[in-house]
Design goal:
Residues 79-170 form the Methyltransferase domain. This is Methyltransferase domain-containing protein. The chain is 31% helix and 22% strand. It is of the alpha/beta class. It has a domain at 5-179 and 204-228 and 292-297: Rossmann fold.
């Protein structure tokens, strides 16, 4: 098994706030794309401001790392997005590869119930329980940003179940945020440390991004690769502003929990002011947060 490390900027990303749905422009029988995009300086972007991918979504970008582009273009692959949220990643992939079929599962029905591309299917499912698919069903499985979703024992359960439904020779890819920001100031350190303590207290895994390779090796997967990509936090233009917005939404979601150990955050206005100070600090320090994509191939021959 080999492992490669490289570093480049994310082309697309998924919003951590699953309460806001994308705005599809067609029914399942007619998913047109002309009105979905806007163009700036020769690059293509989503027209709908609610779509969280803020970098170009043309061919210079990529929604995935696995070496399957040619096969996806040929079609007839089955792809699963585990923990799909509102389905943004699936919508992009379905538009880019119309001859493949994409499946999205999530524990909550935050995905569109009716209006969607004809080659996308959603289902309610829990990664810690048997998935509603037969063995060896998918060619490619994608999972992103479940740092706040799985406990330590559940990562093993999820891995086993995902590998059950992955075909021999199929590819699996995980994307998770690194635990510590680069050029992190003291204000940001306090709140990110509080988040880490919250995760640990619930037996979750704040450093899961650094453990993903170990999971791949544990289950004897082949061709393990890692890519590390940086996100600016509240600097470098719109990308940094929107990534900070994502972080801020997560911070607000966990306020009732982290305020239990930091009484000064129990006031909504006080907490909001603290986050604004963190934002200014990130701008001044040019803070960045890294995410890791780790992907590998299921052996074609079962490992005993």
């Amino acid at each position: 098994m080999g492992q490669q490390h490289s570093k480049r900027i994310f082309r697309r990303r998924k919003n951590l706030d699953t309460t806001s749905l994308p705005s599809p422009v067609a029914t399942s029988s007619s998913f047109t794309k002309a009105s979905m995009f806007r163009y700036k300086e020769g690059r293509r972007y989503h027209e709908d401001e609610s779509i969280p991918y803020v970098l170009p979504n043309d061919d210079e970008g990529s929604n995935f790392e696995v070496p399957l582009r040619e096969d996806l273009e040929k079609g007839h692959l089955k792809v699963l997005d585990a923990g799909c949220g509102p389905g943004t990643w699936l919508f992009d992939m379905a538009e880019d590869f119309p001859h493949c079929h994409f499946y999205g599962i999530d524990v909550a029905p935050v995905f569109p119930q009716g209006i969607k591309p004809s080659n996308v299917t959603f289902a309610l499912a829990n990664l810690t329980e048997p998935l509603p698919y037969p063995d060896h069903h998918f060619d490619y499985i994608h999972q992103r940003l479940l740092l706040f979703g799985l406990t330590l024992p559940q990562w093993d359960v999820a891995m086993q179940e995902l590998l059950r439904v992955l075909k021999p020779g199929g590819w699996i890819e995980f994307v998770e945020i690194d635990q510590e920001a680069h050029n992190r100031g003291p204000l940001l350190k306090i709140i990110t440390d509080a988040m880490t303590q919250m995760l640990v207290s619930r037996n979750m895994v704040p450093d899961i991004s650094e453990r993903l390779v170990n999971y791949m090796e544990k289950y004897q997967l082949d061709h393990i690769h890692t890519t590390i990509k940086d996100f600016p936090m509240r600097h470098s233009g719109k990308v940094g502003d929107l990534f900070w917005d994502d972080f801020q939404r997560v911070a607000h979601a966990v306020q009732p929990i982290v305020s239990q150990t930091h009484s000064e955050w129990s006031s909504s206005q006080g907490y909001k002011d603290y986050l604004l100070s963190c934002a200014d600090e990130c701008t001044a320090n040019q803070t960045t947060l890294s995410a890791r994509s780790v992907w590998a191939q299921k052996p074609c021959v079962p490992v005993h």
